[in-house]
Amino acid sequence: MKMTIMTLLRAGALAALAAGATGCSAITPVQAWEKGTLAKPEMLMEGDGLETRFNEHIYASREAASGGSGVGGGGCGCN
Amino acid sequence: MNNFKRNTRALAASLVLALLAVPASALEAGKPAPAFDLAGPDGAVKLDKYAGKVVYVDFWASWCGPCRQSFPWMNDMQAKYGAQGLQIVGVNVDAKVEDARAFLAGTPAKFAIGFDPAGATPRSYGIKGMPSSVLIGADGKVLFEHSGFKAADREELETKIKAALGAKK
Prior knowledge:
The structure holds two protein chains of two kinds. Chain A is mostly helical. Chain A has two helices and no strands. Chain B has a domain at 52-167: Glutaredoxin. Chain B has helices spanning 2-20, 65-81, 97-106, 120-125, 153-168; strands at 37-40, 43-46, 54-60, 86-92, 112-115, 132-136, 142-147. Chain B is globular and about 70 Å long. In chain B, the strands form two sheets. A five-stranded mixed sheet of chain B has the order 5-4-3-6-7. In chain B, strands 1-2 form a two-stranded antiparallel ribbon. Chain B is built from five helices and seven strands, in the order H-E-E-E-H-E-H-E-H-E-E-H. At the A-B interface, helix 1 of A face helix 1 and helix 2 of B.
């Protein structure tokens, strides 16, 4: 019984080590052609399109910068 | 103890596999274009079948706005240069093929269409954006890769297609 617990613990420690060693390489970035789900309107942080446009307009005019409110590389264009 | 060894071996194997996962790399001009063989609405679409033609491969999806805008232009190009040896192939990358079919019902394509729900073709072509297009010369080698589609791109793309068809003769 003790043996199995030790074995489990060892295996667990090894698994943790493996996960640590591989780091984020096990998590591959979403590729351009895989962004079908991200492109859905419900994936946006905002609810109302008109309100978003208004907010972005105010933000752009105050900050002299615009954009950056959507999902990075929402599946279209060049990024 | 034997279990422990087996666990260790499995872990080591998965670790190696995780480290081997390579990101998709972009195509280089002058290299042979990766082959593909896909099912389409009008039968199989194979790159080998178009050997000797200038092939314009376009990666598109139903969820991609610029793709919708590129379809009428691609229909025009196929109609205009098809006789001179241009073949446009639209590779669909939708995870659900029925989404692609619904898109095609509203946006007709007058060129070859292939479905690739697994995304093996865009991976082998290493595309970076949607839509992406790759022009393949009559010799089967990649001429250039283009990412995105805007109305302003049309002229330049047509010029490149014309140049590729001119080089073919």
